[in-house]
Amino acid sequence: MTLDPQMLDVINESHKHAGHAGDDGSGESHWRVVIKAAALDDMSRIARHRAIHTAIGPDLMGRIHALAIDLR
Fold this sequence. Notes:
This protein is α+β, with helices and mostly antiparallel strands. It contains 2 helices and 3 strands, in the order ββααβ. It has helices at about 45-55, 60, and strands at about 5-10, 30-35, 65-70.
């Protein structure tokens, strides 16, 4: 499935968690995705999150400690 977002903002929030559990020191551990995509409109909340995780892919998801998702 292609999400084809009408709006997408990816924000690195790792600096807010420096020194906390889950901070691996890379500066790329905590992310926020703000997205509006028609493909997500008819999905349940959990299905939306799964679709976004799938779009990000297992390699990148494996390096992320925390991902906040804001659906618009």
